[in-house]
Write the structure tokens for this entry.
Amino acid sequence: MGVKIVETALRDGHQSLFATRMTTEEVLLALKELDQVGYHALEVWGGATFDACLRFLDEDPWERLRQVRKVCKHTKLQMLFRGQNILGYRHYSDDVVEKFVELSIKNGIDIIRIFDALNDLRNLECAVKATKKYGGHCQIALSYTTSPVHTVEYYVNLAKQVEQLGADSICIKDMAGVLLPETAYELIKAIKANTKLPVELHSHCTGGIIEMTYLRAIQAGVDIIDTALSPLSGGTSQPCTESINYALEGTEYDPKLNKEMLNIAAKKLAPVKQKYLDNKILNPKVLSCNPNILKYQVPGGMLSNLISQLTQQNALDKLDDVLKEVPNVRKDLGYPPLVTPLSQMVGTQAVLNVLNGERYKMVPKEINDYLHGKYGQAPAPVNQEILHKIIGNDEIITCRPADLIAPEFKDLKKQYKGIVKSDEDVLSIALFGDVALKYIKKRNDDAIPTKLKLEA
Ligand code: CO
């Protein structure tokens, strides 16, 4: 059987290229065709799509999901789920996590890809249990990074634990696009040899190497790969679906996708890309490859954040020092993978260390919380001297962080009675607070024009 394909255009594609701004109308444009391509699944939902709907598009993210489900009769729908952070940026209580899983599945999701930035499996337990309880396919993703502790053995060990935890499949989530071809080959061979689960690879073209990595992964027996339809592929996004389909044609790995449907869908989505190029939300810079991310081992998004932080401080000449400080901060913190929210936290700390001329003179609240154990367990021991300097003799949480969070759902439902129209609304508020509330009030007042977004 050929390699299976997950189409990411409608989630990671526009998230990576133009800040997740695709509207529901644009998402629906080529959906009928995409539904007939023969994908393993369509990735359509996740933290940024949910956030952008409420914050920028005046749209109900739940309604988008229902509309997508209505059109997709043949293809499974997939979402990305940040463990105990759900689709938000902090840890939520277990009852909110469970309710979110329940309603995601009820509204149309088939496959939930669950991950934790630190690969602390305790942060996945609740979401995994709920996914199984409500009949979803539970995929656990391992956040991929490079460090002295993040070896092939580390990931194989993690994969075995993930299988024990009840995952239906495993994903290697290389959010930075730094997985080298030969490492991928070795890693996937080893995981396949040590677990019975299907293995999927998710990566980004940012560094210019990932088509090679995908090919080696396929030769090692990877079951599923993530690609994006041509208008939403390449650069900081995924490799191109059509090209991969051609490259593997006639081989034992042939994905056998429907080329005619791919062609029509790509034609329909090309003007959407052009629109975001024209309105400058899509910066052409993100479309070319950036091998620096391989040198510095930082995700592309983090690199551009650092550049803009330093530009604002009028200190862009310090970029090299900051890029040298990033691995030092990572080491001090026990090598956290650089994925949301850790990428922002580590980046900010590195900037502060360099600009203040003294390391850890200033420490953001999030780093402080991290050192108190509130994000879970660091992959490797934290630098004790620095830990002491920052938190003194404070107690460190060693239990599962969410054990300390009281149930939230019922209280929120009561508190916003009269405003919320559904449990879905309550969850939007639980995750995005005022941003969701503002949208829901506007929607209830009928203050949202119906034809708003096509020309945005
Ligand atoms: Co991604």
In short: The chain has a mean pLDDT of 94.
